[in-house]
Design goal:
The chain has 344 residues and is an alpha/beta fold. The chain has a single domain (7-315), classed as Divalent-metal-dependent TIM barrel enzymes (TIM Barrel, Alpha-Beta Barrel). It has helices spanning 31-40, 50-53, 62-78, 106-126, 148-165, 189-196, 211-216, 221-230, 258-270, 273-276, 298-316, 319-327, 331-343; strands at residues 7-9, 45-49, 82-87, 130-134, 139-140, 170-174, 183-184, 205-210, 234-239, 281-283. The structure holds D-xylulose and manganese (II) ion (MN).
């Protein structure tokens, strides 16, 4: 079976097992170790935050940052991988406690913009034009502390500076409704794509859709994907899973809801995402805290395996039987057709 899909993964997806209630359970590994594991695990591309590429980024000169980035690009390509995207990690800095682009402090907003422009320079050095913006702290912990309209203006101002910084870069905004903030700006694909039209170049502002984030927003992931695809704005996907409304779990793809996994793959396949959109399928999942270092990438390897098994299911689905049931409006039988197909 040809799959036409290219798979991507980030260094942060090899985590040390720390959570809010306890410390690391696995040793830290360096990037060289991780890249070799990605290749062995069947991955094609790597997603990076700026400081995954250049640790302690804020302490280094612009020239030093790009020098280190060029070295990392060599390491990535040396493993036969390529760089899918780069994202500014704005949520760790003491300058972004109140958010980056939407902070109430003008100097901190400027810091967020400067760091994002540097991310674009890094992306150029790494050979990608895709900039992902997960707006982690752009929102509120206290609703009355910011104005939504004002924050949208700040976000548009920041996006416009990024778009002007390089003519080819594309901004893919990754919506998420909450965590770490109580209420996030741009919580869904709809918000992101409406926001694109507040910028100077809407054609270069699109989205990355993550399964768990859609569940947290109470939305259907397959529909969120198709909504973005219909507007040619699905520039990457972070497939994973989420068991209801709680903290962001980043479980392996399909581990909670196999039917939703089927629907997600079906949407991608029906729209030929793998072959026509020149975009990757990323798995933004994490090892369980209980996993040892030898199993640290199994969540992603398993997610990829599940994706490819689901692709076979999607391709073997009797679409003409489904269409006939749609035509006769027998949705009960359609429901059962899907269930029995999944049970096998
Ligand atoms: C956070 C999340 C991020 C982004 C990249 O929930 O998904 O890891 O994917 O910044
Ligand atoms: Mn993600």
């Amino acid at each position: 079976m040809t799959n036409n899909y290219r798979f991507s993964i980030g260094p942060w997806n090899i985590s040390e097992g720390r959570d809010s209630y306890g410390p690391e359970t696995r040793p830290a590994k360096d990037l060289v170790w991780k890249l070799a594991l990605f290749k062995k695990g069947g991955f094609d591309a790597v997603m990076f935050h700026d400081d995954d590429i250049v640790p302690d980024i804020d302490t280094k000169s612009a020239a030093q940052v790009l020098k280190e980035a060029a070295e990392v690009r060599k390491q990535v390509e040396g493993e036969g991988l390529f760089v899918e995207m780069v994202a500014p990690r704005l949520w760790f800095s003491e300058r972004t406690i109140d958010g980056g682009y939407t902070s109430n402090n003008a100097q901190d907003r400027q810091y967020a913009i400067d760091r994002s422009l540097q991310t674009i320079d890094i992306a150029q050095t790494m050979g990608t034009e895709l900039i992902v913006l997960w707006l982690a702290r752009e929102g509120t912990y206290v609703r009355e502390s910011k104005s939504y309209a004002r924050s949208l203006e700040y976000l548009a101002e920041a996006a416009n500076k990024m778009l002007a910084h390089h003519p080819n870069i594309r901004l893919a905004i990754e919506p998420k409704p909450n965590e770490p903030v109580d209420v996030a700006y741009l919580p869904t694909a709809g918000h992101v794509l409406a926001f694109a039209h507040m910028t100077n170049d809407p054609g270069r502002v699109g989205s990355v859709i993550e399964s768990a984030h859609c569940v947290l927003a109470g939305l259907d992931t397959a529909d969120e994907l198709e909504f973005a695809i219909a507007q040619k704005k699905l520039w990457s996907v972070h497939l994973n899973d989420q068991n209801g409304l709680k903290f962001d779990q980043d479980k392996p793809f399909g581990s909670v809801n196999l039917r939703s996994a089927f629907d997600q793959v079906r949407v991608l396949e029906r729209h030929r995402y793998g072959s026509e959109h020149n975009a990757c399928v990323a798995f933004d999942s994490h090892a369980y805290r209980t996993s040892g270092i030898d199993q640290v990438l199994d969540h992603a390897v398993n997610s990829r395996k599940t994706f490819l098994r689901m692709l076979e299911k999607v391709r073997a689905f009797d679409e003409s039987a489904a269409s006939a049931l749609v035509a006769s409006r027998d949705y009960q039988a359609l429901d059962q057709l899907v269930i029995e197909h999944l049970i096998g």
